[in-house]
């Protein structure tokens, strides 16, 4: 055997070992076989005699102040065990991977469309859905803050500064039919 063939075999062995170690390989998922066979128990498939179902009331606005939340009508619905807002959360009301800056439930303001404001626990998913529909929230809808408004502010300060800057900061932003396009200095 030539030296080249021996080296190719050694490289092939190293490559095979690397894929066994996970680099470049496709390790089996622990739940993969059960999912392929249709035997995996998803949360929507689980059921217990005394199980409660949860549903969240989410904001229809991208940005708003919450003036009031009235859960009294939802609590009157038979089968509803609890309706919770941020006031019902004991201890820390914020979470986050590195910085705890995300409220578990909206506190006094809505920061994005779909932010959870209240949660319902009921004996049936349909009961939970109906209870969510009975929660009354009064909003003060605020104008949307957009990248365009902050970019315009940055542009005005960037143009008043030296135009010979080589930094990678946006100096102008314009709306196009496809979305946002940014010009870099």
How does this model look, in words?
The structure is a single chain. The chain has helices at 3-20, 32-37, 72-75, 125-134, 147-160, and strands at residues 53-58, 64-70, 80-84, 94-95, 102-103, 109-110, 116-122, 136-141, 170-176, 179-184. It starts with a helix and ends with a strand. The chain contains 5 helices and 10 strands, in the order H-H-E-E-H-E-E-E-E-E-H-E-H-E-E. The longest helix is centred in the first third of the chain and has 18 residues, at 3-20. The protein is α+β, with helices and mostly antiparallel strands and 185 residues long.
- Assess the beta-strand content as a share of residues: 25-35%
Distance between the termini: 59 Å
Number of H- or I-type helical stretches: 5
For the residues shown, what is the average pLDDT? 78
The largest sheet has its strands arranged as 1-7-3
| Structural shape | elongated
Task: Give me a quick take on this structure.
With 185 residues, the protein is of the alpha+beta class. The protein is built from five helices and ten strands. It has helices at residues 3-20, 32-37, 72-75, 125-134, 147-160, and strands at residues 53-58, 64-70, 80-84, 94-95, 102-103, 109-110, 116-122, 136-141, 170-176, 179-184.
SSE arrangement:
Blueprint: H1 3-20, H2 32-37, E1 53-58, E2 64-70, H3 72-75, E3 80-84, E4 94-95, E5 102-103, E6 109-110, E7 116-122, H4 125-134, E8 136-141, H5 147-160, E9 170-176, E10 179-184
Antiparallel strand pairs: 1-7, 2-6, 2-8, 3-7, 4-5, 9-10
């Amino acid at each position: 055997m030539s030296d080249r063939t021996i080296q190719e075999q050694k490289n092939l062995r190293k490559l095979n070992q690397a894929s066994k170690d996970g680099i470049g390989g496709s390790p089996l998922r622990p739940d993969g076989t059960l999912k392929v066979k249709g035997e995996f128990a998803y949360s929507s498939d689980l059921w217990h005699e005394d199980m409660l179902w949860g549903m969240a009331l989410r904001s229809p606005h991208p940005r708003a102040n919450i003036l009031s939340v009235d859960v009294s009508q939802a609590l009157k619905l038979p089968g509803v065990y609890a309706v919770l807002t941020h006031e019902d959360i004991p201890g820390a009301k914020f979470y986050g991977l590195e910085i705890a800056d995300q409220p578990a439930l909206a506190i006094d303001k809505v920061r994005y469309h779909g932010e959870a404001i209240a949660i319902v626990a009921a004996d049936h998913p349909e009961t939970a859905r109906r209870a969510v529909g009975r929660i009354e929230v009064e909003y003060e809808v605020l104008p949307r803050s957009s990248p365009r408004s902050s970019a315009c502010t940055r542009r005005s300060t960037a143009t008043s500064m030296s135009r010979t800057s080589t930094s990678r900061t946006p100096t102008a932003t314009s709306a196009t039919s496809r979305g946002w396009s940014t010009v870099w200095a």
